[in-house]
Structures are given as structure tokens and as C-alpha cells.
């Protein structure tokens, strides 16, 4: 069973800052690239307090969601008790070999079936073992299934008060975990993030037979950009859609 997670200590802060209103450009584009989910089985990695999982369930998906933070999962389960959507939440480390394999998802309904889609909303940079996470995601997908993710753009250099994807005293090509110091980067000041180059992400997908099918670089919300005009000059978000085996299911 996973130990304490970085998000355990800030669960209240995170849940308050990221509500069920799905109107931020990156999340909107992520769900758009994921495509119609009604009647499909979807697995969310690093689900946090469940905001994306709940939206997927409202759109008709059968959702299983996993996270390493028990504190965030308690909030997700509380929301499920209040408004049941049929989401099954699992406390686990998704990078462990076999955790997401067929038939190993605990008491999840129909846990012996593979998934039509796997989604990860801003979670990959929080996961130290990218290789393990992507191996698990690919292993949980049926051939032709979709893996969709959103991340802070690996090429985002930051701006006044806003930390970029890598430390200000380092270089883009130097990868590793670090803790932001920008006064406007409230979340990453507390939990840090893993910086990886764009090629690292794409090559990792390819090693696990996830072929990049479409990508998007949504602009930030107007009010965010107005307060951070220098940072808004650069690409901030990256959303990617990959297909297992390169042949998508009919949408």
C-alpha cells in the first residue's frame, strides 16, 4: 500500500482551488481530445479529489480512478457518497508493476475487462516514475484505446512571479524533481514537480506502444493571462492524445 503522498498535507487547499466546474482551457481540451465516453470504461490516473472522474461519469462513462493520496481520495469518496455516480476509487501507486493489470483492480465492477480510455489530468509531473505509470496505462488499455493527458508545457519558461517547467537557475534539458519558488505558483511551491523534456514524454509513450495521435497547446484563461502577460506569451499547457497500437477505436 502506498505511503504518505505529497498531496496529503494540502488536500483542502487543492480541493478548494480546483472545483467541479470544468471550464479551464486545459481540462476542456483534454476532454475534447478524449472524445465521447458514454458507454465506455475509463481509468483515471492521479485522479486527486475526483473532479475529472466525476465529469467523465456525468458524460456516461464507467469510471475507475486511482491515486496515491488517501486524503484526496477521501474527498472523492465523500462526493461519491453525496452524489453517487458509480465511480470506483482505488488507493494505489499506479507505477507498481501489475497494479493496473487486468483483474487486479480490487472490487472494481467488471475489473477483468480492459479499458477503452485512460486519462491523466496534470498528474504525470507529480509521478516520479514516468516509465512505470505509462507502462501501467498502456497495459490497462485495449488495442485502439486512447490515452489522453494534460501537463504543464515542458517548454514553458515562466514569467515574473510564475515558475516555469524547470528551475530558473537550470536548463530545459536538465530533468528532475524540483520545488517552484514563484509567488504565483502556489501549488508547485508546496508539492514540487518533475521536469521532463517533451521528447522524454513522447518517447516514453512510444516505448509502450502509445502513438501520439493529436496534441494541443490551449491558451490560458483570459483573466489568468491578464494578470501574467509576460508568462502568457509562451505555451503554458500541453494536451496529448495517444492511441494504443496506432489504430483508434471508432469514435
Task: Spell out the key features of this protein.
251 residues; alpha/beta; Rossmann fold; seven-stranded mixed β-sheet; two-stranded antiparallel sheet
Give an overview in words.
With 251 residues, this protein is an alpha/beta fold. It has a single domain, classed as 3-Layer(aba) Sandwich (Rossmann fold). It is built from eight helices and nine strands. It has a seven-stranded mixed sheet, sandwiched between helices. Helix 3 links the parallel strand 1 and strand 2. It is globular. The mean pLDDT is 92.
List the helices and strands and how they pair.
Layout: H1 11-17, H2 25-34, E1 41-45, H3 51-58, E2 62-67, H4 70-82, E3 88-91, E4 115-121, H5 130-140, E5 141-152, E6 176-178, H6 186-191, E7 193-195, H7 198-207, E8 210-216, H8 222-227, E9 237-244
Parallel strand pairs: 1-2, 1-4, 2-3, 4-5
Antiparallel strand pairs: 5-9, 6-7, 8-9
Domain Methyltransferase: 42-145
Keywords: Methyltransferase, Transferase
GO biological process, one term: methylation
Amino acid at each position: 500500500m502506498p505511503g504518505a503522498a505529497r498531496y496529503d498535507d494540502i488536500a483542502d487547499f487543492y480541493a478548494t482551488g480546483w472545483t467541479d466546474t470544468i471550464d479551464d482551457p486545459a481540462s476542456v481540451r483534454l476532454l475534447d481530445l478524449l472524445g465521447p465516453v458514454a458507454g465506455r470504461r475509463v481509468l483515471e490516473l492521479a485522479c486527486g479529489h475526483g473532479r475529472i472522474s466525476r465529469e467523465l461519469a456525468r458524460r456516461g462513462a464507467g469510471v475507475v480512478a486511482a491515486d496515491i493520496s488517501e486524503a484526496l481520495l477521501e474527498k472523492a469518496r465523500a462526493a461519491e457518497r453525496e452524489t453517487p455516480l458509480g465511480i470506483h476509487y482505488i488507493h494505489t501507486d499506479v507505477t507498481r508493476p501489475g497494479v493496473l493489470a487486468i483483474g487486479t483492480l480490487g472490487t472494481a465492477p467488471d475489473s477483468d475487462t480492459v479499458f477503452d480510455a485512460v486519462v491523466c489530468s496534470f498528474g504525470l509531473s507529480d509521478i516520479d516514475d514516468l516509465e512505470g505509470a505509462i507502462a501501467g496505462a498502456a497495459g490497462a488499455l485495449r488495442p485502439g484505446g486512447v490515452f489522453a493527458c494534460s501537463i504543464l508545457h515542458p517548454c514553458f519558461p515562466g514569467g515574473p512571479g510564475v515558475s516555469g517547467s524547470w528551475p530558473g537557475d537550470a536548463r530545459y534539458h536538465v530533468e528532475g524533481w524540483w520545488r517552484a519558488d514563484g509567488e504565483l505558483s502556489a501549488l508547485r511551491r508546496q508539492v514540487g514537480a518533475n521536469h521532463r523534456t517533451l521528447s522524454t514524454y513522447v518517447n516514453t509513450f512510444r516505448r509502450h506502444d502509445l502513438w501520439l495521435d493529436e496534441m494541443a497547446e490551449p491558451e490560458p484563461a483570459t483573466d489568468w493571462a491578464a494578470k501574467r502577460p509576460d508568462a502568457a506569451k509562451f505555451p503554458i499547457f500541453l494536451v496529448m492524445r495517444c492511441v494504443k497500437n496506432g489504430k483508434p477505436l471508432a469514435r
